[in-house]
Amino acid sequence: MKIGCMIRHGKRIDKKMRQTxxxxxxxxxxxxxxxxxxxxxxxxTKAFVSISPQKYFxxxxxxxxxxxxxxxxxxxxxxSFEPKPRQMAELSKSAVYFSVGIDFExxxxxxxxxxxxxxxxxxxxxxxxxxxxxxxxxxEKSRPSQKSNVEARAGHDHGGLFLDPHVWLSPSxxxxxxxxxxxxxxxxxxxxxxxxxxxxxxxxxxxxxxDAELKALFAGRKGEQFMVFHPSWGYFAEAYxxxxxxxxxxxxxxxxxxxxxxxRHARERRIKVIFVQPQFSAKSAELLSGEIGGQxxxxxxxxxxxxxxxxxxxxxxxxxxx
Length: 322
Ligand code: ZN
Description:
By secondary structure, this protein is α/β, with parallel strands linked by helices. It contains twelve helices and eight strands. It folds into three domains: 36 residues, no CATH class; 131 residues, 3-Layer(aba) Sandwich (Rossmann fold), CATH 3.40.50.1980; 102 residues, Rossmann fold (3-Layer(aba) Sandwich). The strands form two sheets. Strands 2-1-3-4 form a four-stranded parallel β-sheet, sandwiched between helices. It has a four-stranded parallel β-sheet with strand order 6-5-7-8, with helices on both faces. Helix 5 links the parallel strand 3 and strand 4. The longest helix has 25 residues. Zinc ion (ZN) binds next to loops.
């Protein structure tokens, strides 16, 4: 850049030459600018995550040092998802896989890891204590029940209690996941240790602010209930003192008797909103909302803009909880 620019300003060169030099020096500047980006700088770390909110977490900590791909598309149900052959090929270019403990991983993660022995697999849910998946309503105590299909498929039996995988919907649990992400990126790319460290610190501040905001929003509303088709919001409810009343029972539409019970419950409690998510059919939720003269409202647990989405969903829950 220096050479080109000096010559460009040279007085002895005639006009035509100057123009030629201008072109050349422009090119030289471009090449010199491009050079450090290409071979000198360490390659960007290619990472895979299971679901979109995790992309948000990895980008917060990795910034432009990571290139994140999401395995489960936004519209797909992460409980029953199966990767496409094209995605399996993409995975082979990835340095790291951040799992979150969602159902499909139980079967596919082993295959994914076996096909990519050099890829690091990081369980970001390590150290998180799972709560039982809500499968009851009316404030009944959880009772031992038949194994659900999902549990049977996953060979997962906790005395009839299916443990809730939706750990990314509680700010305090995301802090744990973010710690695993920071550690893994630092191990893969130790040169940028301090950047991962400071990005992590600012992400923690962002989470603290969000958490304080949501705590303020739900202050004094302990025990209020919101009704949701698929019970994705157990950790969220627990964090803010709310009660999630699921329509779906053990991953299935409610039977007529169960539906009647839900209708009674909603009427008694004056619940007017049934929350649904884009990845599930809203059929039985619509039926229920029709019966109670209520409405269907979307609350997406898988939105990529994690913080913005939690704020928005919290506002909707806040308006609907009774
Ligand atoms: Zn779910």
